UniProtKB/TrEMBL annotation:
Pfam families: BTAD, NB-ARC. This is Bacterial transcriptional activator domain-containing protein. Transmembrane segments: none annotated. It comes from Phytohabitans flavus. It comes from the Bacteria. Keywords: Transcription, Transcription regulation. The keyword Endoplasmic reticulum does not apply. SUPFAM superfamilies: C-terminal effector domain of the bipartite response regulators (SSF46894), P-loop containing nucleoside triphosphate hydrolases (SSF52540), TPR-like (SSF48452). Gene3D superfamilies: P-loop containing nucleotide triphosphate hydrolases (3.40.50.300), Tetratricopeptide repeat domain (1.25.40.10), Winged helix-like DNA-binding domain superfamily/Winged helix DNA-binding domain (1.10.10.10). Residues 94-238 form the Bacterial transcriptional activator domain. SMART domains: BTAD. GO terms for biological process: regulation of DNA-templated transcription. GO terms for molecular function: ADP binding; DNA binding.
């Protein structure tokens, strides 16, 4: 392709007929390792002006290419499928790929100080060129592809000139570079090399003449002045300064933030990411690796740490940008491209205004170079795609609160909170290992109250560092106050609340409301139907719930025994949700929301309990509302459902008792009795009934007291210990007569409240 599009077999050169067919062949060669869809081929070949016969033309061209490849002895090289087309050839079989590889090896040699070997490799790579690239191919993509290839060649020529000048071969450079300067008179870097070579060979007048030609052309066609580098070179020549030791050159960009000195844990994630960016990276395609996780979980810290570890494998530089994806206005990728191009040595005046042209120049600059690009805090696929290099020699590390699954070929890892030991170790590294060792139990309590979230643990450690006289026990007491915990997890510019607020502010209105409402529940996790129960009027509660997952404000804890996907809040996120609810929602809404959710659990539990065998006494219900919940399916076994919801149901009962929702509490506890009996969970049965009985007693709910006492008599009767026989018998007798008195007092009204 570095000339006419030609198939070379041994000493024979073969051309595929028709320029458009050669264009399609070139398109596939430029996308080695990637399958191009039919729609992608049509877009590349015709842009937005595809004829009605485009599909048939592509099919015919593919048939011609396959037939000729078969004639050349390579019938299986072209792979076509419904998903698209791909040429199954190795990079070393394509001159453009061999050129890029030669340039990369030359730069590696130069980085090791072996300039002579670098010159040999560059001359070998440039020797692959036979003329204007893709000169006999047509297609909408060809002009841009040709420009990128030419840019790569010119960059290689400039690198070669630098090396030859360094080796003292200025005369060779002056002779070889002159025709290229004539062909590309506006290319400043090329002219700098020419002027330097002329100056070093004593041709000062010619060097200054080259500068004046460039200055006049720039003024006439662009209305600009020459750049700082070439202007300084001209002044140096005018002063007849000593010949510079070497040509001014742009150093490799090193934009990574500093690695954090007290980086802790994450051994598995560090190892996996480092492998994917080094020996585990693909050979023929760009390596894109992503880290997803909630705010404050340490994505940036991990990415920067791994980038520093892998930096030696990318000698041509490391680029970094915080894309501000969680802020109200994320960075425009066009602005990031301009910054990256300046870091790569492009004069600010030479950066195109058009964002597409910027992306093309960026990919061209990175072609055949080994550069690591870190895109931190990305908002979307649309923001990331223009910032991806085109060269397989580069790699990209992305962080985002959501998995950007639309980024083609990306490998993602999900980052969770620390394990307990890792969190304590971080606390010790920030606050002092001695202080943590002196109060190990309090250290465990602090990291638990921080929810093992790295940002929160770091803030806690920083607060201890700022107060060397504090005991860890003092801070743990402060953090136990849930109402002020987020206030106390802030120091300097580190604040857990601010990190969570970025994710929250990025939500739409209905999603914000769902977040606040779900945060009202104490349950350790919850099923998807709860979203619909607390947003009765929303037709897309499930979609809104998934948007909370995408924003990393709600996590997915897995699939339960009943086949439900279960969701969960991090403890600090739940506290933030309640903060926002207290600020933004009317006080009356709290019990309404909780009543709707609790009622949903009750409605399902009542249906399920009816299918569980158990005691012969009648089930007696209270008056708590039971909203309609379109779940579960008929094939869900009731015991599987109770197993899946056990922790949530017990939490609902406890929260209902705390809020004096005694009707709902005794109703739900009654639904659990047969389940507890069959599973032998007598401790849960007894503790639940006692808790609800006390709540009903406080509220004067005689029916609730009676139903709970009836269950207690049942569970205690069959599970009393023999050594307490006499006392137990007396107590059972008293409880039984008390129960009789209750039901007698309640009278016939109980019959109207029994469940079928």
């Amino acid at each position: 392709m570095l000339g006419p599009v030609t198939v070379v077999i041994g000493d024979s050169r073969h051309r595929i007929p028709r320029a458009q067919t050669r264009g399609l062949l070139a398109l596939m060669l430029l996308n080695l390792g990637r399958r191009i869809s039919r729609e992608g081929v049509i877009e590349a070949m015709w842009g937005g002006a595809a004829p009605s016969t485009a599909r048939s033309q592509v099919h015919n061209a593919i048939t011609v290419i396959r037939a000729h490849l078969a004639d050349f002895g390579a019938p299986e090289v072209l792979d076509s499928a419904p998903s698209g087309y791909e040429l199954l050839v190795e990079p070393e079989q394509v001159d453009a790929a061999r050129f890029d590889d030669g340039v990369r090896l030359a730069r590696d040699a130069a980085a090791r100080g072996n300039n002579r070997e670098a010159v040999r490799l560059l001359r070998g790579a440039l020797g692959l060129w036979t003329g204007e690239p893709l000169s006999d191919a047509t297609g909408a993509f060809v002009d841009a592809a040709r420009a990128r290839l030419v840019e790569r060649r010119l960059t290689a020529v400039e690198d070669l000139a630098d090396l030859e000048l360094d080796l003292g071969r200025a005369e060779v450079v002056a002779a070889e570079i002159a025709p290229l300067v004539d062909a590309h008179p506006m290319r400043e870097r090329l002219r700098v090399r020419q002027m330097t070579a002329l100056y070093r060979t004593g041709r000062q007048v010619e060097a200054l003449q080259s500068y004046r030609v460039y200055r006049n052309l720039l003024a006439e066609f662009e209305g600009l002045d020459p750049g700082r580098e070439i202007a300084e070179l001209e002044r140096m020549i005018l002063r007849d300064d000593p010949v510079p030791a070497d040509t001014p050159a742009t150093s490799a960009p090193a934009l990574l933030p500093p690695d954090i000195p007290d980086f802790t844990g994450r051994d598995g994630a560090v190892g996996e990411l480092h492998h994917l960016l080094t020996e585990g990276r693909p050979s023929s395609a760009l390596a894109v690796v992503g880290v997803a996780g909630m705010g404050g979980v340490g994505k940036t810290t991990l990415a920067v740490h791994v980038a520093h570890l892998a930096a030696s494998g990318y000698p041509d530089g490391q680029l970094y940008a915080n894309l501000r994806g969680t802020e109200a206005v994320a960075l425009d990728p066009g602005d990031v491209l301009a910054r990256f191009l300046r870091a790569l040595g492009v004069d600010a005046r030479a950066i195109p205004n058009d964002p597409v042209e910027r992306a093309e120049l960026y990919r061209t600059r990175l072609a055949a170079r080994r550069v690591l690009v870190v895109l931190d805090n990305a908002a979307s696929e649309e923001q990331v795609r223009p910032l991806l290099p085109g060269a397989a020699s580069c790699a990209v590390l992305v962080t985002s609160r959501a998995r950007l699954t639309g980024v083609e070929g990306a490998r993602w890892i999900d980052l969770d909170v620390f394990a307990g030991a890792e969190a304590v170790r971080l606390l010790g590294r920030v606050a002092g290992d001695g202080r943590v060792a002196a109060e190990p139990a309090e250290a465990d309590e602090i990291v638990r109250l921080c929810g093992w979230l790295p940002l929160a643990v770091r803030v806690a450690g920083a607060r201890l560092t700022a107060r060397p006289t504090w005991l860890l026990a003092h801070l743990s007491r402060m953090l136990r106050d849930e109402r002020r915990r987020l206030d106390r997890l802030a120091t300097g510019d580190l604040e857990v609340r601010a990190s969570l607020a970025l994710s929250y502010e990025g939500l739409k209105g209905e999603a914000k409301r769902l977040f606040r409402r779900l945060g009202r529940f104490d349950t350790p996790d919850f099923p998807a139907w709860l979203a619909g129960a607390v947003l009765e009027e929303s037709a897309d509660a499930g979609g809104l719930l998934e948007s909370l997952v995408d924003a990393q404000l709600v996590g997915v804890s897995g699939v339960d025994a009943a086949g439900q996907i279960r969701y969960r809040f991090h403890d600090l996120v739940r506290l933030y949700a309640r903060e926002r609810a207290d600020v933004e929602d009317p006080p009356s809404e709290r019990l309404e929301v909780l009543g709707s959710g609790f009622g949903g659990w009750l409605a399902i539990a009542e249906r399920m309990a009816a299918r569980v065998p158990g005691p012969c006494y009648a089930a007696i219900s209270g008056s708590a509302p039971r909203p309609v919940v379109e779940w579960p399916p008929d094939d869900v076994e009731p015991l599987d459902w109770f197993d899946a919801e056990r922790a949530a149901l017990l939490s609902v009962v406890r929260q209902a008792c705390a809020l004096d929702l005694d009707e709902l509490a005794f109703d739900l506890a009654g639904c659990l009795e047969k389940y507890f009996d069959i599973r032998g969970m007598y401790g849960d049965w007894s503790a639940t009934n006692r808790l609800v009985l006390a709540a009903c007693h406080r509220s004067g709910n005689l029916l609730g007291e009676a139903v709970m006492l009836r269950g207690l008599i049942d569970v205690v009767t069959w599970n009393s210990t023999p050594e307490k026989g006499d006392d137990a018998t007396s107590r059972f007798h008293a409880d039984a007569f008390r129960l009789l008195e209750m039901f007698t007092e309640l009278g016939s009204g109980v019959a109207c409240r029994t469940r079928p």
